[in-house]
Amino acid sequence: MLDSTTRETVASTLSASDGEYIFYDVVAKDYIIVATKQGYKKSIDNLVTAKDNTIINTNLYLSIDAVQNTGTISGVISHNGSIVPSAFVGLYKITDGVEKLVATTKTNAKGVYMFGKVESGEYKIKAKQNE
């Protein structure tokens, strides 16, 4: 909860498993209520006016942040114990047993490859050495 004038945090709380949250002993004035959670975008600012001896019900909404809900797949391609630079590397997503190519890259001089912003799921890496 932020002071509506200074935007300084004046109180914070955690929600229950059903999303309910409570602030106690609030001084009568205007506040901005904001919700945050790892993996979600911050809620929009919600201006509320607290009055003495009253209960205010206000809903806050969070949406999934696709950027925070992705991962990275990386590794080193080697053959017979030697690194393979400039190898073609394919990232295949497996859905219902079917492989689908979703991204490609090449290994660097040390044989390292990396795929970023990968959604959760089952994947397979396939590599081919340049001839």
Structural description of this entry:
The structure is a single chain. The protein has 131 residues and is mainly beta. It has no helices and twelve strands. The strands form five sheets. It has a three-stranded antiparallel β-sheet, with no helix packed on it. Strands 10-9-12 form a three-stranded antiparallel β-sheet, with no helix packed on it. The protein has a two-stranded antiparallel sheet with strand order 3-5. The chain is elongated. The N and C termini lie far apart (62 Å). 5% of the residues are buried. The model has no long low-confidence stretch (mean pLDDT 91).
Report the count of strand segments.
Answer: 12
The helicity comes to under 10%
H/I helix tally: 0
Secondary structure class reads mainly beta
Q: H/E element string?
A: EEEEEEEEEEEE
Describe the global form.
elongated
Computed over alpha carbons, the radius of gyration is 25 Å
Biggest pleated sheet? 3 strands, antiparallel
Strand content: 35-45%
Weakly predicted, low-confidence segments:
none
- Kindly report the average pLDDT value: 91
Termini distance?
62 Å
Biggest sheet: strands side by side, in what order? 1-2-4
Short description:
This protein is mainly beta and 131 residues long.
Task: Describe this protein with a few key phrases.
elongated, mainly beta, three-stranded antiparallel sheet, 42% strand, 131 residues, 0% helix, 12 strands
